[in-house]
Design brief:
This protein is of the alpha/beta class and 386 residues long. Helices cover 35% and strands 21% of the residues. The protein has twelve helices and 14 strands.
Length: 386
């Protein structure tokens, strides 16, 4: 009788042969018995070289490959693989993340052996995403073996900036699926597949993390859970542009204060100021259950966005009603967003009218709203203050 699998390791793949060979070599090197885990690869190409690589690993790893010829979409690749997972724990691992030899055993014993429902994030050591990489030199696994052995016995390393010593009121914002583990039953029960509308680089993993967090599953930064990020070609400018598009989609899908803060300030500052901004908004609206909102529509044929209306339960409150203001009585958009982050491209709004509650915010928070307003619109109109 076959032993139950402890891990299903899910890897999205396309045209990463050099790094994938090293990642798979690190899986062969695990102290955990290879009969206790499987590797499932979502492959978005029909590549003879990839098939040959897997053939050469016959008898060393249990590899299941699900192939498709669709354009690159990392969420689609992960979803293809996740559907075939049968292990107790799902480990999401990118095709450029090489793990120390004790990682699987340590991760399982420390976090999952008792059937605990938790999502564990691992550090991406040597990960640097802000610069272009035009050329990389393929190294042999033996070149990395000493560093991997060192990481296996290293304690307290904080190479990944997400491991700064601070509380994270928005833990979903640091869910980057380069190394993430959680029970497979949690994924199945809550249908935690990736949203394939996201394209290119960025935000699809944070949005998945947001949905995961809303299930009540704790998201924790793993203690001494490391993986080495392998260098590969990178167009930082293209990544930044796709991130902007993905963030706007994310904010439209989830119009929440926490999402607009991460959109506008990135994860670190968003976590730092979240509680303060919540208190500031509550002081302006007079009720912690109310939010500030935006409404966009046509006024006398002109495109107008209102920023700073008070909302309760998704409805606009107060004297100024969007139904009375807009030409057709209905806004195109009405979202419970403060205005610190707006889901619109640069200079895409005809006119923005700032409402009095925005001016009642503390200066730092008010300036965040006004900065965003001037990003999306050249004509920003302020209320008359007597």
């Amino acid at each position: 009788m076959a032993r139950p699998l402890k891990f299903s390791i899910v890897i999205p793949y396309k045209d990463r042969l050099d790094t994938a060979k090293l990642v798979l070599a690190s899986l062969i090197d695990q102290t955990m018995d290879p009969a206790e885990f499987e590797v499932i690869v979502g492959v978005l190409e029909y590549s003879p070289a990839y098939v040959e690589m897997c053939r050469n690993l016959t008898g060393k790893l249990k590899i299941v490959s699900v192939l498709s010829a669709v354009d690159w979409n990392v969420g689609h690749a992960r979803n293809l693989a996740m559907r075939h997972a049968s292990g107790e724990v799902l480990l999401l691992l990118d095709a450029d993340m090489m793990i120390p030899p004790n990682l699987l055993q340590s991760l399982y014993e420390r976090y999952f052996a008792g059937g605990r429902n938790v999502c564990v994030l691992g550090q991406a050591v040597d990960y640097r995403s802000a610069t272009d990489v035009h050329h990389t030199e393929a190294l042999d696994y033996e070149d990395y073996r000493p560093r991997l052995a060192e990481l296996a016995v290293t304690h307290g390393l904080r190479d990944d900036r997400r491991w700064m010593p601070a509380e994270l009121p928005l833990p979903w914002a640091v869910v980057w699926t380069c190394v993430v583990a959680l029970p497979t039953t949690t994924v199945r029960h809550h249908d935690l597949t990736f949203d394939e509308v996201f394209r290119g680089w960025g935000s699809e993993d944070q949005e998945w993390g947001l949905r995961l967090g809303r299930t009540g599953t704790p998201i924790v930064r793993g203690e001494d859970i490391y993986a080495i990020h392998l260098p590969h070609k990178r167009d930082a400018g293209a990544n930044a542009e796709s991130l902007r598009v993905n963030q706007r989609y994310f904010l439209t899908k989830w119009p929440l204060l926490e999402v607009e803060l991460v959109y506008a300030l990135e994860w670190k500052d968003a976590n730092r100021v979240y509680a303060d901004i919540c208190r500031d908004i509550a002081s302006v609206t007079g009720d912690p259950g109310r939010s500030l909102g935006i409404a966009r529509g046509a006024v006398d044929g002109r495109d107008v966005l209102l920023v700073g209306g008070v909302m309760a339960g998704g409805d606009w409150t107060g004297d100024l009603s969007p139904a009375d203001l807009f030409d057709d009585g209905e806004p195109i958009d009405m979202l419970p967003l403060t205005g610190i982050g707006l889901p619109y491209p640069d200079r895409s709004v005809g006119e923005i009218r700032i409402l009095p509650p925005i001016l009642a915010l503390r200066k730092a928070n008010r300036e965040l709203v006004l900065r965003e307003a001037h990003r999306v619109c050249d004509r920003v109109v302020y209320p008359v203050v007597r």
